[in-house]
Design a protein that fits this description.
The chain is α+β, with helices and mostly antiparallel strands. Helices cover 16% and strands 22% of the residues. The protein is built from 4 helices and 5 strands; from the N terminus they run ββββαααβα. The chain starts with 5 loop residues before the first strand and ends in a 6-residue tail after the last helix. 14% of the residues are buried. This is CFA20 domain-containing protein. It comes from Lentinus brumalis.
Length: 146
C-alpha cells in the first residue's frame, strides 16, 4: 500500500450509547481512549508493497457486534494509560472515564463511516450475513484469483 491510512465507523448499542472504532495502519497496538464518545483504536497491517505497477484490492471485514465488548476492556484502557501516566501508578478506569457512557450489550447499528482520503476505495458494504455468506457476483468480479 505504501501509505498510512485509516477509517472509522461509529457504532451504537440498543440503548443508544455510541462509540467509535478507528482502524489504522499507523496504530501499533489496540487501545481504548475514554473520550466522549469512546474511541477504540485498532491496528491494520498489510503485506509490503509489490514492485508491480498495479496493486491488488484488499478486503477488510469487521464484525461490528463483536467489537462492543472491547469498549469495556480495562486492559485496552490500561494500554492507553501506560503512555500517559507516571510509571508505577496504578491504572484507574473510573477516574479516566469521567462518566463516559461506553457502548455495551447488544449491537444496534453503524451510525457513520469515515475514510481518510489517503487510499483508493472501491466500495463499502454492510451485511448481516458475515464472512460465511457468499459474495454478490459483482464483488466476485474483483476478487483476488487463487
Amino acid at each position: 500500500m505504501g501509505r498510512e491510512w485509516a477509517f472509522e465507523v461509529g457504532i451504537a448499542d440498543q440503548s443508544g450509547r455510541e462509540g467509535i472504532v478507528r482502524c489504522s495502519t499507523f496504530q501499533k497496538r489496540p487501545k481504548l481512549k475514554l473520550t466522549n464518545p469512546p474511541l477504540l483504536l485498532l491496528p491494520l497491517s498489510f503485506p509490503p508493497a509489490s514492485s508491480r505497477p498495479l496493486t491488488s484490492w484488499s478486503t477488510i471485514s469487521l464484525n461490528l457486534a463483536s467489537l462492543l465488548p472491547h469498549f469495556s476492556s480495562a486492559s485496552l484502557a490500561r494500554a492507553d494509560e501506560d503512555e500517559t501516566d507516571e510509571p508505577g501508578s496504578p491504572p484507574q478506569l473510573d477516574r479516566r472515564s469521567g462518566g463516559v457512557q461506553v457502548p455495551s450489550g447488544t449491537y444496534s447499528h453503524a451510525s457513520y463511516v469515515k475514510v481518510y482520503a489517503t487510499c483508493r476505495l472501491r466500495r463499502i458494504w454492510f451485511s448481516e450475513g458475515g464472512p460465511q455468506q457468499r459474495l454478490p457476483w459483482e464483488f466476485q468480479l474483483y476478487a483476488a484469483e487463487n
